[in-house]
Design brief:
By secondary structure, the chain is α/β, with parallel strands linked by helices. The chain contains 14 helices and 9 strands.
């Protein structure tokens, strides 16, 4: 029976995340303490106590989600009742791919956190230098969303970037084009259209400067060759083959679409029977229900959830 560990991305953060596990499990507390030293500020305090405006900023939320997810993973690994659970494959949604790489053993916690911190800073800087936005569209299929982007774009940048699950696609691009797309999507029969609370047009060419900064950071980072545990890539739903392939995938991620639905469908087709969402919130658990209602997914987002896995 194959098992996959899944890790959430930006948007999963919430004030209070990590508080219960860092108080209940010394292993989790040590992860947060290490993270505080690496980033140079009280990341644990912001995760546990907020304020929300600070936690929700791109610069803070990315290292915060990575650290909270890694802390939950550490508890899962070190508790006697759950220590035997091992993944055959790991996957993460956008930012979550860094946690997936860490969980698969190809990058250290310290190096991954430094990369994530640099990534958040670079993406915020790229967003500040452009006028971008993102909109989630629910209830339209891929083809209609592509047509909608072409029509609403009116020559401005606008493209589908997150294929999360059937009927849920996020588009990204110029702010004015996103506003036009919101209106048009309702006319096209969308069930719901929501502008996302993000800094800019992630996963588009507006993030090209961030991609270059990340490329430079990755050049000096040690990433091992994938071995026993497979890692599936967001950008093409293929398994990473080499360390260079991983680095290229992480850079490409910033300016290209995230194919989450395809990743999960690939894992299901390859025989994964049990999925664990490890990290704050239940975003990936919800998406799994839309991709395959029969799939077994266990949400591990707090201390109580870990105790229930232990039973």
């Amino acid at each position: 029976m194959k098992t996959a560990f899944l890790f959430p991305g930006q948007g999963a953060q919430a004030v209070g995340m990590g508080a219960d596990i860092s108080h209940s499990f010394p292993a989790a507390a040590r992860i947060f303490e290490t993270a505080n030293t690496i980033v140079g500020f009280d990341l644990r305090g912001i995760c546990c106590e907020g304020p929300a405006e600070q936690l929700n900023s791109t610069i803070i939320s990315q290292p915060a989600i990575f650290t909270a997810s890694a802390a939950l993973l550490e508890v899962l690994r070190t508790e006697p009742a759950t220590g035997g659970i091992r993944p055959d494959v790991t996957a993460g949604l956008s930012l979550g791919e860094y946690t997936a790489l860490y969980a698969a053993g190809v990058i250290s916690f310290e190096d991954a956190l430094r990369l994530v911190h640099k990534r958040g800073q670079a993406m915020q800087a790229a967003a500040d230098a452009s006028e971008g936005a993102m909109v989630s569209i629910i209830g339209l299929d891929d083809e209609i969303v592509h047509q909608l982007c072409e029509q609403a774009g009116e020559g401005d940048l606008l493209t589908p970037v997150n294929f999360n699950c059937p009927g849920q696609i996020v588009i990204s691009g110029d702010k004015a084009a996103c506003r036009r797309a919101k209106e048009l999507a309702i006319k096209c029969g969308a069930i719901k259209v929501v502008r996302l609370e993000v800094a800019g047009a992630f996963h588009t060419e507006m993030m090209a400067s961030a991609a270059e900064i990340l490329r430079e950071a990755l050049a000096g980072c040690r990433i091992a060759e994938p071995s026993e545990t497979k890692i599936i890539a967001n950008v093409d739903a293929q398994y990473y083959r080499t360390s260079e392939h991983i680095k290229e995938g992480l850079v490409r991620q910033l300016t290209h679409p995230i194919l989450w639905q395809q990743c999960i469908e690939r894992l299901l087709a390859d025989g994964v029977e049990t999925f664990y969402e490890i990290g704050p919130g239940r975003v990936l658990t919800g998406l799994m229900r839309r991709i395959d209602r029969k799939a077994k997914i266990i949400n591990v987002s707090n201390a109580q959830a870990i105790k229930e896995v232990s039973v």
